[in-house]
Amino acid sequence: MDLEENRVESRHYAFLMFLTLLNVMNFVDRQLLGSFANFIVPDLGLTNTEFGLLTGLFFIVFYSAMGLFMGALADMVNRTRLIAAGLALWSALTALSGAARGFWTLAAPRMLIGVGESIMTPTAMSLLSDRFPASKLGFASGFYYMGVPIGVGASLLIAGYLGPAIGWRNCFYLLGGIGLALAGAMLFIKETPRRHLAAAAETAAAQRPTFRQILKTLGFALRNCPALTLTIAGGITTHFILGAATFDQLWYVQERGFERAQIAQWTGWVGLVGGVLGNLFGGLGSDRFLARTGLGRPMFLFWITIVFAPFGIAYRLVDGDSIWFWIGVFVGFFQLGCFYGPTFSTVQELVPPNIRATVVAFYILVLNFIGLGVGITLGGVVIDLLMGLGVAAPYTWTLLAFTVISLGAAPLYYWAGRRYQSDRKRLLEMAA
């Protein structure tokens, strides 16, 4: 690829920053329940199982079910307007969540929030793939996914600083209003020309695919590209502990002795720094790793998983005043940041360009429905079960078990990385 093809206009970087801001809002809103766990659970009288349902199954079923449809929709309609509609919907429902008086009145808006949020990432990743060349897609994906650690960190800081000052309900109202204002701004941004349509403007290939054709192509890619399915399986396995970590704030307070506002503040700052550094390292590092070794980006994640595994295990076993505890907090956020750029760029590179939004939506579907759904929902059930049996430190043992299970991602990433180049070449030849 020559220098001209690699060049990216400054306006595309500005657009990337705006999409990243919207993704920050996405993850602030999504993480609010987890960050305010020590405020909401006692206020509404929730059990761990109920809290797990609110943050897990109830949200994820709607988020995942609508995600695949929204991804296919993004391959067919104006993408900037689609994002604006999704942002407006989830922001209004976030504000409505602040009025909840019990389990079911919080469950209703949380379920529907998933519909709006399911639009954001498949559509954004499709837009970025049309503004950035393949050689810079890892960076663009990693930068966009800085919205995850920044959003998670910001939600913890909101819980730690604003929560005691104005209450958790007013925080929900405030964030809903900010999201509605950003949705209005998104309406003024024009759609990005789709590269594969522009390149085939004079041929039948320029016709936009139907929903049925999109799903057929996705099935073809999944059947004929083991590197793609292995990468997806590795992501699912990684997300088991990410789901169970929803209970971290409760664990910090109930089994490590921290004060609820103070630990939200401290983990918010550590998560913000560690996550951003991880996203930059994952995006830029995986691009360089691919260029130098010829192995796929999942191999990069294999080494990340292996190197950081001892820290993740030790972190769950030491006391809260140990240096290893805080190293573990930092490493956890750093490793989470490393995940997104390599995997989301990989799944887009291993499918034909006309279904990129759809494969991202499918990937998000299985990450959330299987990975987070099992981690959050089963985590809450196991914690309540261990409590009922009188087991000491039920949060600790549950989180440690899910940490060990998630290490099963390492061999999946390894084989995906080994097969990446050959599978990508064969898939493109078959598709042609």
Q: Quick gist of this model?
A:
By secondary structure, the protein is mainly alpha-helical.
Features:
21 helices; 432 residues
Task: Write structural notes for this entry.
- About 1% of the residues have low confidence.
- The protein is 82% helix and 0% strand.
- The chain is mainly alpha-helical and 432 residues long.
- The two termini are 20 Å apart.
Most strands sheet: none
Mean of pLDDT: 85
Name the shape in a single word. globular
Approximately what portion of the residues adopt beta-strand conformation? under 5%
Evaluate the radius of gyration.
21 Å
Tell me the helix content.
Answer: over 70%
Class derived from helix and strand content = mainly alpha
Q: Count every beta strand, where a strand is a DSSP E run of 2 or more residues.
A: 0
- What are the low-pLDDT stretches, counting only 5+ consecutive residues below 50? 201-206
* Count of helical regions: 21
Helices, strands, pairings?
Elements lengths: L2 H4 L3 H26 L1 H8 L3 H8 L1 H18 L4 H19 L5 H15 L2 H10 L7 H8 L2 H20 L1 H19 L8 H5 L11 H14 L1 H19 L3 H9 L3 H34 L3 H21 L5 H27 L6 H33 L5 H13 L2 H23 L1
